[in-house]
């Protein structure tokens, strides 16, 4: 009985039988054995290349870019309205495609104080609030990595991230933007940013008001590489910054 239990079904292919019966599969098996790491590595780089091409080809045309980093994240509808609003403030159709379009980048980052405040507010309403620490850390790193690319020079940030940028000497002084002219309403005490809530752009446009009223509008210094290293492109960012900061509603 024990012998019978170990007997194999004669109609069932055993390991190696398939390659023995097919010259092509035998060749394929040998080819994989000797070249598998080349195939794996080549496949990896091919995948990265394809993804990169898809992103490049699928990327829309934009006249300028604005980056936002704060403790709030707009929902889809809010973000669409805000992006449309920014497009209306874009000074020119720089790429000549007949539209004024602004690319909006968003990063949700909590400082320790902002997190504690959010937890306290939620508790006051008998709600539970928690932020994934890894997600928050990743968003912070992603924002810092992104601004180093020079892709965007106009940023709207929380006071926490504003201090990080200021300490890193990443901000353009308003005095260098406005020269001998008067600084705009809402200029920060150190002269490197503008309190967004004090601008007419914020006060007279509901699409901007989901942003925390502590948000600060600022302009990054030109970078040595990336989009911001090109004088013309950087001038577009300066013009966008001033369009937002200088906007006034006639009384």
Topology:
Elements: H1 2-6, H2 17-21, H3 23-58, E1 64-70, H4 76-89, E2 102-108, H5 112-124, H6 133-148, E3 154-157, H7 159-167, H8 174-178, E4 193-195, H9 200-203, E5 216-219, H10 231-245
Parallel strand pairs: 1-2, 1-3
Antiparallel strand pairs: 3-5, 4-5
Walk me through what this model shows.
By secondary structure, this protein is an alpha/beta fold. The protein folds into 2 domains: 17-56; 61-245, D-Maltodextrin-Binding Protein, domain 2. It has helices at 2-6, 17-21, 23-58, 76-89, 112-124, 133-148, 159-167, 174-178, 200-203, 231-245; strands spanning 64-70, 102-108, 154-157, 193-195, 216-219. Strands 2-1-3-5-4 form a 5-stranded mixed β-sheet. β1 (64-70), α4 (76-89) and β2 form a beta-alpha-beta unit.
């Amino acid at each position: 009985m024990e012998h019978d239990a170990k007997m194999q079904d004669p109609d069932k292919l055993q390991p190696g039988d398939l390659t023995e019966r097919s010259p092509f599969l035998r060749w394929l098996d040998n080819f994989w054995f000797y070249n598998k790491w080349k195939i794996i590595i080549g496949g990896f780089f091919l995948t990265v290349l394809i993804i990169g091409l898809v992103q490049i080809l699928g990327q829309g045309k934009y006249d300028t870019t604005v980056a936002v980093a704060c403790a709030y994240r707009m929902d889809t509808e809010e973000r669409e309205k805000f992006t449309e609003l920014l497009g209306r403030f874009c000074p020119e159709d720089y790429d000549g495609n007949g539209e004024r379009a602004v690319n909006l980048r968003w990063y949700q980052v909590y400082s320790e104080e902002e997190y504690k405040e959010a937890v306290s507010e939620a508790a006051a309403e008998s709600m539970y609030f928690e932020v994934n620490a890894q997600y928050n850390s990743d968003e912070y790193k992603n924002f810092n990595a992104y601004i180093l690319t020079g892709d965007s020079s106009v940023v709207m940030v929380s006071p926490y991230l504003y201090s990080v940028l200021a300490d890193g000497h990443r901000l353009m002084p308003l005095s260098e933007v406005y020269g001998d002219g008067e600084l705009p309403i809402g200029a920060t005490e150190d002269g490197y940013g503008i309190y967004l809530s004090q601008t007419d752009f914020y006060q007279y446009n509901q699409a901007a008001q989901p942003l925390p009223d502590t948000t600060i509008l600022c302009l990054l210094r030109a970078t040595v590489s990336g989009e911001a290293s090109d004088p013309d492109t950087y001038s577009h960012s300066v013009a966008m910054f001033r369009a937002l900061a200088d906007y006034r509603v006639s009384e």
